[in-house]
Amino acid sequence: MPKPTQTHGVMGVDWEQRVDWERLRTQRLNRIKNLLSESDAGSLLCFDMTNIRYITATHIGTWAQDKMSRFTLLPQGAEPILWDFGSAAKHHALYAPWMGGDSRSRPDPTLLRGAIAPETGRAEAVARKIYNELVEHGLQNEPVAVDIIELPILFALQELGVKIIDGQQMMQNARVIKTQDEITLLATAAAMVDAAYDELYRAMVPGFRENDAVALVSKVLYEMGSEFVEGVNAISGERCSPHPHVFSDRMLRPGDPAYFDILHSYMGYRTCYYRTFVVGSASQAQVDAYKRCRDYLDHAISLIKPGITTADVVSIWPKAEDFGFPNEEAAFALQYGHGLGLAIWEKPVFSRMVSFDHPEVIKEGMVFALETFWPASDGWSAARIEEELVVTADGCEVISRFPAEELLVTGAKYYAATGPLNTVRDTESNWNNPRIHPNGRTQPTGDRAAVNGGGTQ
Questions:
Q1: What structural domains does the chain harbor?
Q2: Rounded to an integer, what distance in angstroms lies between the CA atom of residue 25 and that of residue 31?
Q3: Average pLDDT, rounded, for the chain
Q4: What is the 3-state secondary structure (H, E, C) of 315-351?
Q5: Which helix (H) or strand (E) holds 383?
Q6: For labelling, which of 24, 93, 328, 449 has a CA lying 20 to 30 Å from the CA of 185?
Q7: Pairing of strands 164-166, 144-146
Q8: For residues 35-47, average pLDDT
Q9: Is the pLDDT score of 453 beyond 50?
Q10: pLDDT for 299-315, tens place per residue?
Q11: Is the pTM of this model over 0.90?
Q12: Longest dimension (CA), the chain
């Protein structure tokens, strides 16, 4: 059995080698510098907070994640220059010595996604400062690779004669193979979700609401040192199929399925980690759906090793039409895989929608999540499971450890006069009476069976 990926506490200590932060910063920057040097671009311009963090190892809070309020320019053969949000620039100059002080950490807000009116001339001012740096490095006639950008700034750069090309793929290609320290941080983030699921499992009883689950998970994660609880996708009962991808204030009821996706970041590194439970008991239809969902996931995991492709994996997953959807676009992200890193969706992507025509080769050092879904034959419940994997030299390691090989039952254990109440039973008590329904708890009979579809898929 190979040694598992190391995880540690969240503090720095002098008596044990943990995450090497200087190595993390240096290896990330060197990786994107090398890709830039091999590209057609003379420089790389980033407004995406995730890419800025990868290049500069700076951070100003998750409130800024969607503001496009800061940007960095990485010229060929030079160090990154960062224009930041007001006083954050001075903070980096004082406390982030790798940014070279005031010379490369500069204050200069953007348009704040249109909140600052075009008439102020901010777009032109930002473009001019970028252009001046290109001239300084002799790169004004070379293409500038850009990840995302506000249109007024794009137009202003084009007015100055700057040729813009796509830089998002360059950044994705830089981030697809994780360093040793990135893998440690991703495993630590997953370990925190392990703990959150343990607390959630203990708390789920009839009357507990989906938003209560979000609050509990957020509390656990923030107390453990999470930087950002990006989302807790809490789905229960009849909301499970079709999958709405957002929580509500619905209360749990006996016999409900409930599945969750916990997305948070530790030092910027994300999780995407589904688990499915049932409250008190499960119907046979729910048990069957979970088993099928798990089988699809386990088969996919068994294939993972360097050299296979995303097409090899998705070929063993069901077609959209096999589980009630008209096409792969309608079923997108239900049988799915995606890279994990400073964002929750990175390369490689596993989907029947794109992977057959554009397969990606699996390589050692990739970290990604594989997730499967299956609707139950009762027409309203479903199972959803996801595991996070690190690709090793000859296979993979699963770093999401909360038990999921079988469907877990939450809540109190109920006792009848004759002994413990069976946890595989139908939601409505009368359906479990073998004196009335000869098939017992497997399915109702007569008209009720027709309504619920009967059998398993």
A1: 21-175 (3.40.350.10), 180-410 (3.90.230.10)
A2: 10
A3: 94
A4: CCCCCHHHHCCCCCCCCCCCCEEEECCCCCCEEEEEC
A5: strand 382-391
A6: 93
A7: parallel
A8: 98
A9: no
A10: 999 999 999 999 999 99
A11: yes
A12: 87
pLDDT at 437: 64
Taking residues 128-152, report their average pLDDT: 98
**Unique residue bearing structure tokens 């309020």:** 69
DSSP percent split of the chain into helix, strand, coil, nearest 5 = 35, 20, 45
Which of these, 109, 72, 67, lies nearest to 88 by C-alpha position?
109
> Which regions of 152-253 does DSSP assign to beta strands (E)?
164-166, 228-236
Handedness of CA 104, 105, 107, 108 (dihedral sign): positive
Residue where the block lists tokens 């006792």: 415
Report CA-CA distances (Å) from 283 to 67, 148, 273, 404, 448: 46, 48, 24, 18, 15
- What interhelical angle do 21-37 and 49-56 show, nearest 10? 110
Which residue from 178, 182, 111, 177 is spatially nearest to 148, judged by alpha carbons?
A: 111
Task: Note whether 166 and 172 are within 8 A (CB).
Answer: no
Running DSSP on this structure, what letter comes out for residue 289?
H
Q: How far is residue 264 CA from its own chain's centroid?
A: 8
Cα 371 versus chain centre, distance: 11
Q: Residue 439 has what pLDDT?
A: 57
Collapsing DSSP to helix, strand or coil, 412 comes out as coil
Q: Is the pLDDT at 452 greater than 50, yes or no? A: no
